[in-house]
Design a protein that fits this description.
- This protein has three helices and five strands.
- The protein is globular and about 45 Å long.
- It has a five-stranded antiparallel β-sheet.
- The longest helix has 9 residues.
- The chain has a domain of about 55 residues: Herpes Virus-1 (2-Layer Sandwich), CATH 3.30.40.10.
- The chain binds zinc ion (3 copies).
Length: about 120
């Protein structure tokens, strides 16, 4: 069910543009989870991350639909309607994806060592 969302026609088969969050990789920051833009393949960090680049990408581009990309969960989310949507397929992962959070959701100190503190 995709109640209240008519943006599924904007969903494309995309190739993830980067191995991790594009902006965080560029700035030397870190993230919690990754979201994939299903319009253009931009990889951005989730709202639990310090820099929230997936949401920033939506505000900059109005690309509506993201996929839960890392961990690869395959669900879709529409930013415009703020509803979960069913995607036609799940995007294959590009590896190796840098990870800064362990399976319990804790920051891995050695992984973020030397990275810039988040911009708050
Ligand atoms: Zn929508
Ligand atoms: Zn980011
Ligand atoms: Zn996009």
């Amino acid at each position: 069910m995709n109640q209240g969302c008519d943006h599924l026609n904007t969903v494309n088969q995309v190739t993830p543009q980067t191995l991790g969050c594009a902006e965080c990789l560029a700035s030397g920051s870190w993230w919690v989870h990754l979201r994939l833009c299903r319009s253009c393949g931009h990889v951005g960090c989730c709202d639990d991350s310090p820099n929230r680049h997936a949401t920033a990408h939506f505000h900059a581009t109005r690309h509506a639909i993201i996929e839960g990309y890392d961990p690869p969960e395959g669900w879709g989310w529409c930013f415009v309607d703020e509803v979960e949507v069913e995607l036609p397929d799940q995007t294959p992962k590009r590896e190796p994806t840098p990870r800064y959070i362990d399976a319990y959701g804790r920051i891995i100190p050695s992984a973020i060592k030397g990275l810039k503190p988040p911009l708050t």
